[in-house]
């Protein structure tokens, strides 16, 4: 049977979600933890790749399982074999055709930066850092230009070619939370480094070093060079992946199928 | 001249602020970093001890300095020699008689706990953990009984005898922040483990395992056993130490002394 896992991780010590030639991937940590449980697991597939140093509160992954552990208890068993920087927060049976990546309707990411005089000690691995005064209202207003369906070609790093760079951003908010500046973005999908390029550009706009209009210009001209730097990975966190209940199989989920 | 340092630290890898026979103290890390700077430093004294694993965003400490670095630049120089989990966030000259510990008018601590099904991966060293449903409104209401001047004898761990356990709590708030439950307390001073005992007791009250009345009973009877467990250190953070400008020497602070 196919299982949907909800996963949380501190990406500091990992080369990202995806298995790489060099470095230890979160995917590998989860696979090794699954292998220590009774039964047989295969085909662990994440909803999205996260880069080295990037965190997740709500990563999702599917895996096929034949074994004695009830699907809704699997996450508890898995926490017994996972390292402390990776946690399974929920598990449920889904339809056999369900796919964590292809069936994702949308994702929400958060970029959080410590906005102080000096980089933070306490939050050095779970937040980025932006020095100096930021006009957060101006950042939020500027960001609204990205909401909607656009060709985001300018908002990606090279290295992962895609067929189409058209994505729909459904929400973008910039706000202050205690000593942090937070950029929260929901979209039907994201290009490689898209959130970190948006965040890095909004920080430049907030400092007054770039004009708010660069966002619209970059959408029209598809030119990465118009935008700010890619913000550091430690500030990025995958908050949520959204699926339709129909795709997952609602009866199966709630354990009411029989 | 006497300097007031503002310090931030991730207490995870330290035995606390204060030098101990076993373990490496934050105080020691700061002293060693000061020694690498030009000039002579002596008598580094913190506003308050923090326990092993406890963090600080706003620890204060005074130190005497004879050397070439201007007081208001000292924190920047210090960050060049401090380890990454300790940061100096400000520095200023204060009156020679100023004392970081004795002159503190009050402190604000925050206890933050991840309130989920399983312990957090991302926040495992910077937050505590409380499982299950919590009635946060009930916790906040119950906590108001502690506001004011009381004998907090029941709210301390043994090991650090004090002349008087009378303290004035000026504010206590319990609130939700995203996936966290946060207890924020300001007082003119705190007994050993006082915040962690208050937090641990409020969590039991929030779960319905202890009645709100235990707080008042414990104040009256001075009985530690009436209260909940001491909450884990990683959730505790020293937010702020408050001083009177007169004690510090306002003119000196702002560099306008002539």
From TrEMBL, chains A, B:
Check the UniProt entry and state the signal peptide residues, or none: none
Q: Which UniProt keywords apply?
A: Isomerase, tRNA processing
Active-site annotation: 51
One Pfam match: PseudoU_synth_1
List, in alphabetical order, the GO biological process terms annotated in this UniProt record. Answer: tRNA pseudouridine synthesis
UniProt binding sites for substrate: 109
* Source species, domain of life: Bacteria
**Where does the Pseudouridine synthase I TruA alpha/beta domain start and stop, copy by copy?**
8-103, 143-244
What InterPro entries does this protein's entry cite? PsdUridine_synth_cat_dom_sf, PsdUridine_synth_TruA, PsdUridine_synth_TruA_a/b_dom, PsdUridine_synth_TruA_C, TruA/RsuA/RluB/E/F_N
Q: Which reaction does it catalyse?
A: uridine(38/39/40) in tRNA = pseudouridine(38/39/40) in tRNA
Q: Does the keyword Isomerase apply?
A: yes
Entries under HAMAP family matching the protein = TruA
Database matches in NCBIfam families? hisT_truA
Q: What does this protein do?
A: Formation of pseudouridine at positions 38, 39 and 40 in the anticodon stem and loop of transfer RNAs.
Q: What protein name is recorded for this chain?
A: tRNA pseudouridine synthase A
Q: Which organism is it from?
A: Gehongia tenuis
